[in-house]
Design goal:
The chain is an alpha/beta fold. The protein has one domain (2-216): 3-Layer(aba) Sandwich (Rossmann fold). It contains five helices and twelve strands. Strand 2 and strand 3 form a beta hairpin. Helix 1 packs across helix 5. It is globular, with a radius of gyration of 18 Å. The structure holds cytidine-5'-monophosphate. Residues 6, 66, 85-87, 89, 116, 118-120, 135-137, 150 line the site of cytidine-5'-monophosphate.
Length: 218
């Protein structure tokens, strides 16, 4: 099977030397990429900037901004049977990026932001992907409801819901505790290493993809 995974944060330029980003380390996505490659699948890992080593045996596509990641997914998605979107993509980017470093002038400064394209939200509707699609939801409140809402809006098979208000799990930690939110059920996975959770998520995803193949005969 060919598995496309997005991972890590994005970097949105403010000027040639500054950027906006978030606390994503990429560990969850890289753990899944490593596990999938270890199972013998072809893995396309599309990643924002991280401090991690690229797992052996994956096709690595480095990106920086959300717009870069959008273009990378757009060009690779047709090769994939399964797509898992674990990247923490910036919702907004600076509206204007000057060619030169911004100088300090007044006591305050206003940075205007505009919306980034929603990569996961474009995958069914614009990229016409019909394989198994898994999204992530990093939430600080109403975790399950927000995840189910996302599942419906973005056409996912399930959403991995993460409570990022806790500091022992979620962003930039080695452990995680997630719920798999489906249209008709929720499955809590318990607290484990990201490595173990990565395996569990992959097993569920591959099982869904195999049953799709059995039904459609493709
Ligand atoms: O709507 P929200 O940003 O919370 O959705 C999170 C999910 O959507 C994650 O799976 C993330 O990788 C994906 N996403 C994306 N492109 C965006 C924003 C989020 O692919 N611009």
């Amino acid at each position: 099977m060919t598995i496309l995974i997005t991972a890590g944060p994005t970097r949105e330029a403010i000027d040639p030397v500054r950027y906006l980003t978030n606390r994503s380390s990429g560990k969850m996505g890289y753990a899944m990429a490593e596990a999938a490659a270890g199972m013998g699948h072809r893995v396309i890992l599309i990643s924002g900037p991280t401090q991690l080593d690229v797992p052996d045996g994956v096709d690595f596509v480095p990106t920086e901004s959300a717009a870069d990641m959008y273009r990378a997914v757009e060009s690779w998605i047709s090769k994939a049977d399964v797509a898992i979107f674990a990247a923490a993509v910036a919702d907004y980017r600076p509206a204007h990026v000057p060619e030169h470093k911004i100088k300090k002038t007044g006591d305050t400064m206003i940075l205007e932001l505009i919306r980034n394209p929603d990569i996961l939200g474009s995958t069914r509707s614009i990229f016409k992907f019909n394989g198994v699609l898994v999204g992530f939801a990093a939430e600080t409140q109403n975790v399950e409801d927000n995840a189910r809402d996302k599942l419906e809006r973005k056409g996912c098979d399930f959403v991995v819901a993460n409570d990022v208000s806790r500091n022992d799990i979620g962003f930039d930690t080695n452990d995680n505790e997630v719920m798999l939110v489906y249209a008709d059920k929720t499955e809590p996975l318990g607290k484990h290493s990201k490595h173990h959770i990565g395996h569990l998520i992959l097993d569920k995803t591959i099982a869904l993809a195999s049953s799709n193949i059995a039904v459609t005969g493709q």
